[in-house]
Write a structure and sequence with these properties.
Length: 224
């Protein structure tokens, strides 16, 4: 007696060799193929990667010097800026005022009379603590902003000096080339020398002072 060793299509794993009632083989849909397709991403240029690493290193350096007390206060201050803190304050005020404002015939016990001195004291103390925490965090943020502004100023001055040096080198090269006409460029002559930052600051202050004086004189003349 011979046995049938041919595999039964119904015993095969799902997705491989299975068929529906019409006999057509099941194939993956286009949406599933699109979801499994991974688009390659181009790597960032080396200069951008170095800039990102520099920024991360500066941020890590600023966060490393923060004390535990400062970090604890800033963590609490972050909660003060969330909407859930506002909702909790409103809910607390409602739960405090509502039992004390209801009529006595309802039988709700009152634990404070109008004008709610303990509620006022709690809100005042809470406002003082919130303000102090915000000022502590803001002071450190202002120091970081000042350091970054100084760094940006230093980099801008250095870039300006480099650009002036490049212009001077190009002007020397232009004069040395025999096939280039030796013509004078007044604008290039001015741009060869780096800008004096102190002179610009003095000029801005003088201009601002004169503008404020003119505005004050105009206001006095209009009032008269």
């Amino acid at each position: 007696m011979q046995t049938n060793n041919e595999p039964n299509p119904s015993d095969s794993p799902s997705g491989f060799g299975s068929s529906d009632s019409t006999g057509a083989a099941k194939t993956p849909t286009a949406s599933s193929q699109a979801s499994q397709k991974i688009l390659p991403t181009a790597p960032l240029p080396e200069s951008i990667s170095q800039n990102i690493e520099t920024i991360i290193a500066l941020h890590r350096r600023s966060e490393k010097n923060v004390s535990q007390h400062q970090r604890f206060v800033e963590t609490i201050t972050i909660f003060f800026g969330r909407p859930v803190f506002l909702y909790s304050i409103l809910l607390g005020i409602i739960l405090w005022v509502a039992p004390n404002a209801l009529p006595r015939r309802l039988g709700v016990p009152r634990f404070e009379e109008v004008p709610f001195p303990w509620l006022q004291f709690s809100l005042t103390a809470g406002s003082l603590l919130v303000t102090t925490g915000v000022l502590i965090k803001q002071e450190r943020q202002e120091k970081l902003a000042e350091q970054r502004a100084q760094l940006s100023l230093q980099l801008n001055l250095l870039s300006e000096q480099k650009i002036a040096k490049l212009i001077a080198l190009i002007e020397e090269l232009r004069q040395d080339l025999p096939n280039v006409k030796n013509r004078s460029d007044p604008e290039a002559e001015i741009m060869k020398s780096p800008t004096d930052a102190h002179a610009i600051v003095d000029l801005l202050e003088e201009t601002l002072a004169s503008e404020l004086a003119n505005l004050s004189q105009q206001e006095i003349s209009t009032q008269e």
